[in-house]
Fold this sequence. Notes:
Structural class: alpha+beta
Strand content: 15-25%
Radius of gyration: 30 Å
Number of helices: 19
Shape: elongated
Helix content: 25-40%
Number of strands: 28
Distance between the termini: 71 Å
Strand order of the largest sheet: 5-4-3-6-2-1-7-8
Largest sheet: 8 strands, mixed
Amino acid sequence: xxLSTLNSQLSTNRMAKVRIxxxxxxxxxxxxxxxxxxxxxxxxLVENALxxxxxxxxxxxRHGGRSLMRVEDNGGGMSRDDALLALERHATSKIVEAxxxxxxxxxxxxxxxxxxxxxxxxxxxxxxxxxxxxxxxILVNGGxxxxxxxxxxxxxxxxxxxxxxxxxPARRKFLKSDQTxxxxxxxxxxxxxxxxxxxxxxLIEDGRVIFRSPECRTLEERIAEIFGRxxxxxxxxxxxxxxxxxxxxxxxxxxxxRATRHxxxxxxxxxxxxxxxxxxxLIESYHESLPKGRYPLAFVFFDCDPAAVDVxxxxxxxxxxxxxxxxxxxxxxxxxxxxxxxxxxxVAAAQGGSAVIPAPPGSTPSWPANGGPLPARGFMPTSVQPxxxxxxxxxxxxxxxxxxxxxxxxxxxxxxxxxxxxxxGVPAFSTxxxxxxxxxxxxxxxxxxxxxxxxFETAAxxxxxxxxxxxxxxxxxxxxxxxxxxxxxxxxxLLPVPVELDAxxxxxxxxxxxxxxxxxxxxxxxxxxxxxxxxxxxxxEPADAEPFLxxxxxxxxxxxxxxxxTELARDxxxxxxxxxxxxxxxxxxxxxxxxxxxQLFATRSPLTNPGGRPTYIELNHGELARRxxx
Length: 630
């Protein structure tokens, strides 16, 4: 479009008169807020089914919801007049006056969902209430009524949505891949299945049953049906009540954590929500029970007076606002900490962050429920023996001699000694030969502090070396080279490790089996959502195979490990492995530490670990003099 034409249209728009939009246009605009993706359609229809008193809900979709979404229930159904009225904007049976918003007990209340969906898709509704012998069928295509007629069907409602966003092609372009949209739908249905364990749920994708969960007596049974028995066995019940508030559900045992928040799910008055207040309260409660960067397992229900929470702050009702955020946060923290203390208060490890759970004196811990030993942390990182003197002797050189290293990163600036004696781009105590090869820093070993920090004396002052960060850098580059060369040695397990996953994680794993096999893992499918780890990379301890695999799947789901770029995926895999690989003994001798320094400065980026933390810090003479006010 030419600029003159655009300016002409803008001028015409400024001169236009104010008018009321047709209902069809208004519904399509409203759909932009309420129906942002296929999962939003499923969410609204499932909420309507549950509000109608359904004890059985079946959800089916195809091609990520683009071509078909069907929700069928055995709820109360509707008469013909009610069904027609439900397709009008702001028509609802949930509230009558504004004061009803302060005592909401239903999922829906705005009356926007059905007309919004019908305006941007082909919408077919079949419904029948018990008082009528025949049902009603209504077909709407892109906001236009096609027909209204009688139909035969059991009591309940069936809604089928096809060709989503066909009437607004611009919206269709913004949808993600079928796999991504399907993951959102599956996650949505799981949330409502957890919220209503006494309602039977069936989820079908492209003709394949993702999960079928009958009516469950308890939340634990529903979690086992959807997420697997292994997760259910890692949970403990929580029940706490104070005036006007109650917290119930299941939380993870101390030390059991995840790399992502996908299994930290909260409900407020049985409504699944994203609540920063509740999420941060849970994370804070596990501060001493989990390493930094890990998230607790939680499936908790927070119940309060409906007037104390505002659910009308987000178009999709995902976010809420409490009248007293601080009081809610304090109550949740108290409740969770009290439950954790009943099991024996965890003590956070000084450096590794693992939680040690002492058993009561004279007693024998009775959990985990599977009879296995209590892990020091929920998902224990991959175990790699620290780099020893024998391991590095071939590459280590005496202090003061030149290193033998790989070619340095071309992006790093060449080091040059400045007039003040420091080196541009590298520390003051590192020098280069005329050929540019790095030399060993002339550091004199002084001692080891707190088991992790090695102290060295240098000509420029003092250096503190972080053993863990240095090991992570060395292992990162070693693993990255193995991955790029395609030479990853693996070890077959005498006893394969069983892994039970939820539907989303199982789909992610199935699509990436080839990638994992190329990097030392051998995982075989062993039933619906069941797998067996039959081989692991040589650097991994077999006991750490399952938690590391779960962390990998979490990274795939978060998009941290990209699908489209193999090189980036390999680098990220090496970073994850190195970050979780190192386990250090309490002490280390001078020879091991000198060898570690040699290996560190043979890497491309010795200044930081793969996560960006410094591997060492220097206190030069000027800084020391300033600190001592000399």
